[in-house]
Amino acid sequence: MTETESFAYDVVVIGAGPVGENVADRTLAAGLSTAVVESELVGGECSYWACMPSKALLRPVIAHADARRTPGLRAAARAPLDAAEVFAHRDEQTAHWKDDGQVEWLEGAGAALHRGHGRLSGPRTVTVTTPEGRTETLTARHAVAVCTGSRAALPGLPGLRDGAVAPWTSRGATSAREAPGRLVVVGGGVVAAEMATAWQNLGSSVTVLVRGSGLLERMEPFAGELVSQALREAGAEVRTGVSVTGVSRENGTVVAVTDAGDRVEADEILFATGRAPRTDDLGLETVGLEPGSWLEVDNTLRVTGSDWLYAAGDVNHRALLTHQGKYQARVAGDAIAARARGEAPPTAATADDGAVPQVVFTDPEVASVGVTLAEAERAGHRVRAVDVDLATVAGAGLYADGYRGRARMVVDLDREILRGVTFVGPGVGELLHSATVAVVAQVPVARLWHAVPAYPTISEVWLRLLETYRG
């Protein structure tokens, strides 16, 4: 019979990714004893299989593309990327999938780390099964925070359902040691667009199969159009309006069958078709919640119907982005600390509603915040889209020859504020925070005239947008 060891803390956090780390950081700073439970690597998905490795793969790709558009560098940029060096750099950025540094930070902050699979086993109680098979029971005096994130969701297709084909998901795409000769990417969202960009330029021949009408359909239409154009120019094939009905592996070759009856052959296949919450084996049923469900929360990240359970990050489905999850974690940690003192929470997570910033690290980059024109119109706002060709901006022409890009701001005509902003083009990711401030602060358009952009930078697009709006 396995003996159970018991521990008591003020707060127990399940999940040691960036979100869980930030909850712990806030509660520890408030003087609350805090335990963190992690079944894999401290640092989570972002550090080892998502944000960091994907951008480590993409940064050389984008720099190489910029060099090809820069006078004086074109000859040097004709050589292909050194894929081995790129992979080595990726491995360094992921600390070679070792979490010693992250553990040192967490324990240095004062958290108690419990390695193993954590499950709720009743109100304020978490049971941990350690890698050695021991059982630990953690009791939380004030709160349990679920920060377990999300995982890739695979469709129930023939060949996947029976395990005949082991596809890449986002994890496989960011950790592969070499470029497959042929890669099929199924999906049209951010992961599909970024990984198609990376692997096409790292030596693979990429075919993208998109069920919808184009890439990045949740963003302004021109975003997906420009990214698709660039992928095709790089040599990738992008097929839209195509559904995969089954996959098989024949003599080492992956075969994807489409709804049109076409057979697309490849060495590897990446499914980037959505995310699912990591709550299926979390013990939600012990506290009256549905296993495998997204967790509904209020603006302090407390789970609906509970006075002790919190859920921050992907797991609540509000905004599946690391920076939004960390933002939620800061709000949740402060709320837990305040309520432990018998006080009202000092702030609420309002940025998840209509002011979410995101950068897609393709070539060209896509940066957006707030709502699209279509979303604003569906919400009943009286709005106007103001568009500018980024090639008309002096700083863009200096950034790269043949600069190609577009900017849009969605103006609320009744309130004269910005509801959303989208930039597409090389280097536009660094423009995004100015747009985020304008949207979040609801800066009046008339006031934006007095925020003078430096010349000659790409940020001068703000002046062009305002001039176009004034007419």
UniProtKB/TrEMBL annotation:
- Which key words tag this protein in UniProt? FAD, Flavoprotein, NAD, Oxidoreductase
User: For this protein, what is any one GO molecular function term?
Assistant: oxidoreductase activity
Q: Which residues form the FAD/NAD(P)-binding domain?
A: 9-323
Recorded coiled-coil stretches: none
Give the EC number.
1.-.-.-
Q: Which cofactor does it need?
A: FAD
Source organism, top-level taxon: Bacteria
Q: Which Pfam families does the record cross-reference, listed alphabetically?
A: Pyr_redox_2, Pyr_redox_dim
What positions does the domain Pyridine nucleotide-disulphide oxidoreductase dimerisation occupy?
A: 356-462
Q: Which InterPro entries match?
A: Class-I_Pyr_Nuc-Dis_Oxidored, FAD/NAD-bd_sf, FAD/NAD-binding_dom, FAD/NAD-linked_Rdtase_dimer_sf, Pyr_nuc-diS_OxRdtase, Pyr_nucl-diS_OxRdtase_dimer
Family matches, as PANTHER family: DIHYDROLIPOYL DEHYDROGENASE, MITOCHONDRIAL, DISULFIDE OXIDOREDUCTASE
> Which family would the database say this protein is a member of?
Belongs to the class-I pyridine nucleotide-disulfide oxidoreductase family.
* Protein's name in the database: NAD(P)/FAD-dependent oxidoreductase
